[in-house]
Amino acid sequence: MTVETKIQLRQEAIKPGIGTRILNTKDELLSGELSDEINALLEQRAVLVFPQVNFTDEEQLRFTDLLGGSVTEIQGSEVFKVSLDEGVNARVAEYLKGSLYWHIDGTMHQLPIRASMLTAVKLSDEGGDTAFANTATSYEALDGKTKAEIDDLRVVHSLWRSQLYHTPEPTVEQLDNWQSHGEAELPLVCTHNSGRKSMVLGNTAHYIKGLDPKESHRILHSLREHATSEPFSYVHKWTVGDTIIWDNRTSLHRATPYDPASGRMMHRTILQGVEAWEN
Questions:
Q1: How many distinct helices (H) and strands (E) make up the chain?
Q2: Which of 209, 167, 203, 215 is nearest to 186 (CA)?
Q3: Assuming Cys at both sites, which of 125, 133, 137, 257 could form a disulfide with 252, CB separation 3.0 to 4.6 Å?
Q4: Which among 242, 250, 247, 233 is positioned nearest to 267, based on CA atoms?
Q5: Domain segments of the chain: what residues?
Q6: Chain mean pLDDT for the chain
Q7: 184, 155 in Cβ contact below 8 A?
Q8: Given pLDDT bands bounded at 50, 70 and 90, which one contains residue 2?
């Protein structure tokens, strides 16, 4: 009689406050046997790194579906080619410049994506690393007084605020276009179905309602500085074939600067959202 051996999840922590490397083979990951454990670990660790797993687009989509289902990407594609090259992304290259600054995806949507999955296809000669920060563990590390002060604050998020980071002197046409995407009011501290809390920060965070503008900016910038500090942040230096998944609701991220003409190319898929910003 043949006894089947259960696949064991092989992992190693990157830092106490963020990140885990998953060392299983591609076949083991695509078997689906590890999906529940990977999902649970993603919620705990915010960022999961799969070194040189070398997914094809079809395999990446399959893995995305195994973890909870993929959703249509920008421009209606299943796999989005992340590049600042206007020859590749003529319609959204300007918008993607915001990826060079700390942000959370989907702050303008009531139901944000659960996670993003990124695979390195081609790298730039210089720059182009990706930095991540855990907004759950960084919140947990705040003192009780600070938590009490920020727990009930509300923040207005907008696309146009994020675009001013890279284009501080836009034309009126650019500004009209950005502002046409509207605004969203979100809690500064988001409570998850699990009861865990995290901060909703980044370059779309425009201002805290009811506060003096100077005080609002001071709070948002100081919390971002705390969340992206050494204990809670990780910078990934890519190797072609690496794949990373990050929990979108608990992870700030940004790319380090690189030449848009370098050919740097990442392929992204996104996981179906399961929790709104507010329960």
A1: 9, 16
A2: 209
A3: 133
A4: 242
A5: 11-271
A6: 92
A7: no
A8: low
Over residues 179-237, the pLDDT tens digits come to 888 899 999 999 999 999 999 999 999 999 999 999 999 999 999 999 999 999 999 99
What value does the mean pLDDT take over residues 9-29? 97
Residues in the chain: 279
In the β-sheet with 183-187, what is the strand arrangement from edge to edge?
183-187, 154-158, 205-208
The predicted model scores a pTM of 0.93
- Separation between Cα atoms, residue 133 and residue 102, nearest integer Å: 9
Residue 1 has pLDDT above 70, yes or no: no
Burial class (CB in 10 A: 0-12, 13-18, 19+), 136: buried
Which fold, 11-271? Double-stranded beta-helix (3.60.130)
Residue with tokens 């503008």: 213
Among 271, 245, 249, residue whose Cα is nearest residue 42: 245
Q: Which residue has the tokens 């790194």?
A: 49
